[in-house]
Each structure stands twice: as C-alpha cells, then as structure tokens.
Design brief:
Blueprint (H helix, E strand, L loop, with lengths): L2 E5 L3 H13 L3 E5 L2 H10 L6 E5 L7 H11 L4 E6 L12 H4 L7 E3 L32
Parallel strand pairs: 1-2, 1-3, 3-4, 4-5
Helix pairs in contact: 2-3
C-alpha cells in the first residue's frame, strides 16, 4: 500500500483528499500545516511515497515544504495543489516559488469563491414576441 502525506491549511480540503485517496486504497497521513507535515516526515516510520501539498499556506509555502521533505525523505514524489491558476506575487513567494519548478505537477483544487453549480437562470417576465404564455392561451 502506498502512503500519501496530504497538507493544506484548509481542513476540509485535507479531509476531501483523504476520503478520496482512502477509497482508492492509499494510506493517508493528514496535516493541516507545514509544521505538522514536517513532524510527520521526521517521526513517521516507514515510507511516505507522495507529498500532496497546497502551494500557498501560512508560515511556509508548499514549495519550501517540498524542499525540506526531499531532504528528509530522498525520493519522495511531490504533487502541488492550488486554488489559483497563477500564484499571486503578493503572497510573498519568490518568482521561483511562484513558478514552482520545471516539470512540477500541480492539481487545481476547489475554491470557495467559485459556486458549486452555475446560478439558476431567471425566467423572463414576458414571453418573447410571437409566443404566448400559458395564461394567455385559450382554454379548451
């Protein structure tokens, strides 16, 4: 069984990824901060095959976490997650961190700012010209 370390400061994202991965047969180690993830990397016996981490988190970027993880666990694979298509510069990340690394894998994650479904379409108040509404049809 492969082991995944899932890191995001949004606990709901961690739980969603954990639920999905466990359904697919992975063992999941959840962490809601980079510091917690580093403790797991330092103390967890056995192999950790994949680090799945958010890019933008308080205290440490996912990129910086991945660099530390690779030093602690040589050979660990990394998958980045982000709610941003392009990580904005105002998050304090260097241009290298914003661009991650050549060939980096990044997964778009759900964003709270996006609606889960498109808003319902509003019905027109009047039928278009040439069409009659049900109320204006002759009754039989």
């Amino acid at each position: 069984m492969q082991t995944l370390l899932v890191v995001d400061d949004d606990e709901q994202i961690v739980e969603m990824v954990q639920d999905f991965a466990e359904l697919k047969g992975y063992e999941v180690l959840p962490a809601t901060s980079p510091e917690e993830a580093l403790r797991v990397l330092e103390t967890q016996p056995g192999r950790i095959d994949l680090l799945i981490t958010d890019v933008v988190m308080p205290g440490m970027s996912g990129y910086a976490l991945s660099e530390k993880a690779r030093k602690l666990r040589p050979g660990i694979h990394v998958l980045f997650m982000s709610g941003f298509v392009v990580v904005p510069a105002h998050y304090g990340l260097s241009s290298e961190e914003r661009g991650l690394e050549a060939g980096a894998s990044i997964l778009a994650k759900p964003s709270r700012s996006r609606p889960a479904a498109p808003p319902p379409r509003r019905r027109p108040r009047r039928p278009p010209t040439g069409l009659r509404s049900r109320s204006s049809r002759p009754r039989r």
